[in-house]
UniProtKB/TrEMBL annotation:
Enzyme class: lyase
The species this protein was found in: Syntrophomonas wolfei subsp. wolfei (strain DSM 2245B / Goettingen)
Reaction(s) the record says it catalyses: siroheme + 2 H(+) = 12,18-didecarboxysiroheme + 2 CO2
GO molecular-function terms, A-Z: lyase activity
Entry's family note: Belongs to the Ahb/Nir family.
Name of the protein this chain belongs to: siroheme decarboxylase
Entry keywords, A to Z: Lyase
Record-listed E.C. numbers: 4.1.1.111
InterPro entries membership: AsnC_trans_reg2, HTH-Siroheme_Decarb, NirdL-like_HTH, WH-like_DNA-bd_sf, WH_DNA-bd_sf
Siroheme decarboxylase AsnC-like ligand binding domain mapped to chain residues: 65-143
Pfam families attached to this UniProt entry: AsnC_trans_reg2 (PF17805), NirdL-like_HTH (PF22451)
Amino acid sequence: MNELSRTDREILNILQADFPLTTSPYRDVAKSLNLDEDEVIARIQAMKKSGLIRRIGGIMDARSLGFYSTLCACKVPEQRIDEVAGIINQQKGVTHNYIRDHEYNMWFTLTAPSQDEAMQILKSLQNDAGIEVISMPAKQVYKIKVSFEMSETDAL
């Protein structure tokens, strides 16, 4: 999906910044754009299928809920990246996992009910994957929201 229609861009803007918290959110999105609910759902499904949309869901501030969260980095041999990513991604508290061009080439975030539990998970990951993991908990959070305004002139 290289070219997005104006309608798809409008749908993306609503999904990111103004998702209706109602019993029929897609009907409400459709109504706000003078569309049929089935058309909105079909367009969203097409954007999911193309990979443009990976997930639709809420993002909770784990710290305000009493959870412990940390950014982690590890050194993974190039030939083991897929294997190690699979091991890390099996953990239910892992929310992001990225490859970086750095000595520590795999970075992920981990959220757990407590610091002790997070450290147990990291120790288990180190043992299961046979890698070194560095934990870097945030000292201060500066930004927790990202939204991409989809105007007509934006290139994808």
